[in-house]
Amino acid sequence: MSRIVHVVKDDCTSCSLCADTHPQYFRLDSDDLAETHNNGANVNNAEIPDGDIAKVQESIDDCPGECIKWKD
Ligand code: SF4
Predict the structure, then answer these.
(1) What is the model's pLDDT at position 72?
(2) pLDDT digits (tens, 9 = 90+) for 43-70
(3) Ligand 1: residues within 6 Å at CB?
(4) Which residue blocks in the chain are alpha helix, DSSP H?
(5) Entry pTM
(6) Which domains can be identified in the chain, with CATH numbers?
(7) CA–centroid distance, residue 34 to ligand 1 (Å)
(8) Is the alpha carbon torsion for 44, 56, 26, 14 positive or negative?
(9) Residue 68 forms beta bridges with which residues?
């Protein structure tokens, strides 16, 4: 079981908290807006395995823009 996560870029504040905390799933694009990824693939459509869902949920809960969303 896994889940898909993405960033609603229009609401991103570019604080970089998600990318600093979990760089394996979050990075900033050339406009300093966050996006999700899997080692550079699945850009803004990252697949999160069961074992990492809780840590990504922490990023969702801590995001000041409230713009990290599960797709399912
Ligand atoms: S934590 Fe939220 S507001 Fe900050 S860079 Fe990540 S997605 Fe953007």
Answers:
(1) 77
(2) 999 999 999 999 999 999 999 999 999 9
(3) 7, 12-18, 34, 63-65, 67-68
(4) 17-21, 53-62
(5) 0.96
(6) 2-70 (3.30.70.20)
(7) 6
(8) positive
(9) 7
DSSP character string of 4-15: EEEE-GGG----
Q: Shortest CA distance to 67 belongs to which of 31, 26, 24?
A: 26
Mutate to test the pocket of ligand 1, among 5, 10, 12 (most ligand atoms within 8 A of CB): 12
Q: What percent of the chain has pLDDT over 70?
A: 100
Q: Is 61 exposed, middle or buried (0-12, 13-18, 19+ CB in 10 A)?
A: exposed
**62 CA: nearest ligand 1 atom:** 1
Tell me the pLDDT of the chain averaged across its residues: 97
Q: How many residues does the chain have?
A: 72
